[in-house]
Amino acid sequence: MSLAMSREDLMEYLRQIFPQVHRDFVVEALDEESIVMRLVVEDRHLRPGGTVSGPSMFGLADVSVYAMILARKGRQSLAVTTNSSLDFLRKPEGGKDMIAKCRLLKLGRSLAVGDVLIYSEWSDKPAARATMTYSLPPEGSAAAAFG
What we know:
This is Putative domain 1. There is one protein chain. This protein has helices at 7-17, 54-73, and strands spanning 25-30, 34-39, 46-47, 51-52, 80-88, 98-107, 111-120, 126-135. By secondary structure, it is α+β, with helices and mostly antiparallel strands. Strand 3 (46-47) and strand 4 form a beta hairpin. The mean pLDDT is 91.
């Protein structure tokens, strides 16, 4: 299956729909099978002890799967998270950006499921693993036409 949006189109669309947080996330790489996203870690993403917070890693996983769905389905897709699971595997390195490697396990008519591994920048050991499920609006609905 081909992409409905390029990396540049996707970044611009994320800027439009998430103006409050678009600077936090960068699409590093995108192809038909996967997306690599960066969380630009700042002090507000850290918790006491200098490590990246769980909510920040959750946000990275959530945006990664959402962006992959958009890249495949296009701007008309107003997907919403319906289920998530996040396993913290090791302490992320504070002061380093977080990198998410995401792939879609399923992209159906009504559901999408994505798997995400999250790493501290330059580390080959994942700090977290997430599985996210999204509900997709029916094609032709007002929600599917958003964007």
